[in-house]
């Protein structure tokens, strides 16, 4: 049997309790630091960049739909009209 000390066990329990309390107390600060670190690695796109990306994605979708259009010609013409407006 190993040496078991009540003093060491109480000390460990208090250390765990204090650490948990500090984590709970500083949780908003720690969460903010984590978000800032994520933004440093992967910055948020500006509104214009998001709009351009969305428009490019929509244009590529329409182009794919046109390329695979095995449907009737009126449907293809409608897709071309939508693509010209995008």
Could you give a short description of this structure?
The chain has 86 residues and is mainly alpha-helical. Helix content is 80%, strand content 0%.
Explain what the structure shows.
The chain is an all-alpha fold and 86 residues long. It folds into 2 domains: 1-44; 45-86. The chain is built from 4 helices and no strands. The chain has helices spanning 6-25, 27-41, 47-67, 73-85. Helix 3 (47-67) packs antiparallel against helix 4 (73-85). The radius of gyration is 29 Å and the shape is rod-shaped. The N and C termini lie far apart (77 Å). The mean pLDDT is 84.
Largest sheet: none
Shape: rod-shaped
Alpha plus pi helix count: 4
Ends: how far apart? 77 Å
* Structural class category: mainly alpha
Residue fraction in strands: under 5%
Order of helix and strand elements from N to C terminus: HHHH
- Helical amount among residues, as a percent range? over 70%
- Counting DSSP E segments of at least 2 residues, the number of strands comes to 0
Q: Count the domains.
A: 2
Mean pLDDT: 84
């Amino acid at each position: 049997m190993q040496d078991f000390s009540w003093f060491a066990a109480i000390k460990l329990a208090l250390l765990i309790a204090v650490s948990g309390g500090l984590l709970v107390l500083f949780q908003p600060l720690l969460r903010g630091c984590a978000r800032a670190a994520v933004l440093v690695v992967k910055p948020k796109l500006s509104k214009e960049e998001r709009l351009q990306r969305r428009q490019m994605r929509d244009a590529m979708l329409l182009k794919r739909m046109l390329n695979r259009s095995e449907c009737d010609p009126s449907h293809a013409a409608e897709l071309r009209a939508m693509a010209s407006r995008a």
